[in-house]
Every structure is written in structure tokens, then in C-alpha cells.
Write a structure and sequence with these properties.
The protein contains 3 helices and 10 strands; from the N terminus they run αβααβββββββββ. The protein has helices spanning about 1-5, 30-35, 40-45, and strands at about 20-25, 50-60, 60-65, 70-75, 85, 90-100, 105-110, 120-125, 130-135, 145-150. Strands 4-3-2-1-10-9-8-7-6-5 form a 10-stranded antiparallel β-sheet. Strand 6 (about 90-100) and strand 7 (about 105-110) form a beta hairpin. The longest helix is centred in the first third of the chain and has 7 residues, at about 30-35. The termini are far apart.
Amino acid sequence: SMAESETTPATSLPPTMIGAFQMEKSEKFNELMIELGVNWVTRNIANNLYPVQKIWQEEDDIHINTETSFRCTQTTFKLGQSWQETTADGRLTQTVATLEGNKIKKMQVPDASTGYHTTEEVREFSEDGQTMTMTISIPGKPEVTCVRVYKRLPEDVEPAQ
């Protein structure tokens, strides 16, 4: 019922998921971008960036900001609730995020009429919270699954540009 859902406390992300993480290595990012139709100029820039992802939570709202010298993207969402997201590659999707153990999973589904791919974005956090592994995949196309490994930044350190 509605009354119950209003009194249920927010699901808190574990401390291992909160903070700033800088990308250290990346596999198959270019292949994924080609499959998603990203143009060469944008791919060339994106392939040379080492983004910082900042993750925090305010009540029910989870925030994930991706910051680079090129541009910053901001996403705010509630777990288990669909929202309209503009993905980094420019697709408009209906996205749902779930918390599954040490993973935040996002399913990004564009309108079928666009012909764009659905993507699954999984952030998996190590037990000590020092590493976040982001996997971006297209269902049915395992050959372009992209894996990007991020390392936690110390809290008082400004990210390298």
C-alpha cells in the first residue's frame, strides 16, 4: 500500500559505494561506442579521458556524477523506480537501478522505435571499497562488453585532470 511505502526507510548504499573513484583502466570501450553509434571524433576524445565518478546519497536520492576535463554528467535516481535518463552516448532511455549485494545495476531501455540498443551498466564494489568495476554490456552482444576499473580517491585529494 501507499502508506507503507511512505514510511519505509530509504535503502542506504553501503559506505563502500560512497565516494569518488578515478578510472584506471578500460577494456573494449571503443568497441562498445562503435556498436552504440558514437561518432569518431567523440570516441577519440572519450578514449583519452580518465573520468572521476562521485557517488553519494541524500535520503532516497542516489547521485552519480561523472566528471572529466571534457564534460560532466549528473544522474539522480531512486532505487527500483524508472526514470528518463540521457546516457553518456546521447540515448534517451527509461532506466531502472537496483542494488544487488555489492552491485548497483542499471538497465537502460530506449524506445523501441529509435532502434537504439538497450544497455546494462553494473558497478561492482570490492569488499574493501577501494575498487569499483564498471561493466557496460548490450544484451545479446557479449563481444562488445566494456569493463572499466576505477580506484577510490582519498577524500582530501583533488582528482587529476
